[in-house]
């Protein structure tokens, strides 16, 4: 990909952790960047070099970070905003467009900046591949954090998606600040999907120390998940074959 010499913003996915899973176009963009913006653990993955400024922030307000990236690009800098996994999955790409929209009247010139989203391998796909093919049929990806939406909406979606017979992948499943919520999520899932449905806890996928655990929902406990875990719940047809877990590509009428 040839990038222009004017300022630009690239929102790049670094994949789930293993450096071999960073795409070549993301490497190229980082190689051409003057500035890297992102949450501390993601920026740590970028090798420092002359001419590259690393802006690692602990700030959880993603739109502020995105606004900073746009400001720098407007000054002519080549800015890469890094996310883990894919930048469009519960990550920075939406935040950049939100910042663009918020400033559309005061900074209309930002609308002409070159902004590109470079995809990465999202956690659920790396986790699915690590255990077999649990997302081989229809599925939904759900963020279990109630930072940006009410918990009541999460409960409603779990219920309806479970009843619809879709497999599910959960991001941000369980944080210390809301330990009871994931227990409640498991309760809803047992009811909506059936207690024998398989659930997989995939922790630190593709990183050293990767952990994979698959149990039926009836044996799942909240402690099996933390914020470094992506959780995959199968549909009623999801099954084991040997050491693998897979979901057939067909489904009977619901
Ligand atoms: N944009 C990221 C998701 C950010 S939300 C992506 O596409 O993967 C952060 C959540 O992603 C974590 O709480 C966890 O649920 C999941 N996650 C990210 N990397 C992971 C990994 N290597 N192993 C397991 N889960 C991971």
UniProtKB/TrEMBL annotation:
EC number in record: 2.1.1.131
Q: Which CDD domains match?
A: Precorrin_3B_C17_MT
Sorted keywords for this record are:
Cobalamin biosynthesis, Methyltransferase, S-adenosyl-L-methionine, Transferase
Q: Which GO terms describe its biological process?
A: cobalamin biosynthetic process; methylation
Q: Which Pfam families match?
A: TP_methylase
Report the pathway entry. Answer: Cofactor biosynthesis; adenosylcobalamin biosynthesis
Per UniProt, residues of the Tetrapyrrole methylase domain are 9-220
Query: Which terms does the record give in the GO molecular function aspect?
Result: precorrin-3B C17-methyltransferase activity
NCBIfam families this protein is in? Answer: cobJ_cbiH
- Name listed for the protein in its UniProt record: Precorrin-3B C(17)-methyltransferase CobJ
Highest classification ranks of the organism: Bacteria, Pseudomonadati, Pseudomonadota, Alphaproteobacteria, Rhodobacterales
């Amino acid at each position: 990909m040839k990038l222009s010499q004017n300022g630009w913003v690239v929102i790049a996915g670094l994949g789930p952790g293993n450096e071999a899973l960073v795409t070549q176009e993301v490497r190229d963009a980082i190689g051409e960047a003057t500035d890297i913006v992102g949450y501390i653990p993601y920026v740590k993955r970028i090798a420092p070099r002359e001419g590259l400024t690393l802006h690692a922030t602990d700030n959880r307000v993603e739109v502020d970070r995105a606004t900073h990236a746009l400001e720098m690009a407007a000054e002519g800098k080549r800015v890469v905003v890094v996310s883990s996994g894919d930048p469009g999955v519960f990550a920075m790409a939406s935040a950049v467009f939100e910042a663009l929209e918020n400033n559309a009247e005061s900074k209309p010139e930002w609308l002409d900046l070159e902004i590109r989203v470079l995809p990465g391998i999202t956690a659920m796909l790396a986790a699915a591949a690590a255990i077999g093919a649990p997302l081989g049929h229809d599925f939904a990806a759900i963020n279990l954090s109630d930072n940006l939406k009410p918990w009541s909406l999460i409960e409603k979606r779990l219920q309806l998606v479970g009843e619809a017979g879709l497999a599910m992948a959960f991001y941000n499943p369980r944080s210390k600040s809301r330990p009871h919520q994931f227990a409640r999520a498991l309760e809803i899932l047992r009811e909506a999907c059936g207690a024998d449905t398989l659930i997989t806890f995939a922790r630190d996928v593709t990183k050293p120390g990767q952990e994979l655990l698959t149990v039926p929902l009836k044996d799942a406990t909240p402690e099996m998940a933390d914020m470094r875990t992506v959780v995959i719940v199968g549909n009623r047809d999801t099954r084991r074959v040997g050491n693998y877990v897979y979901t057939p590509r067909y489904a009977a009428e619901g």
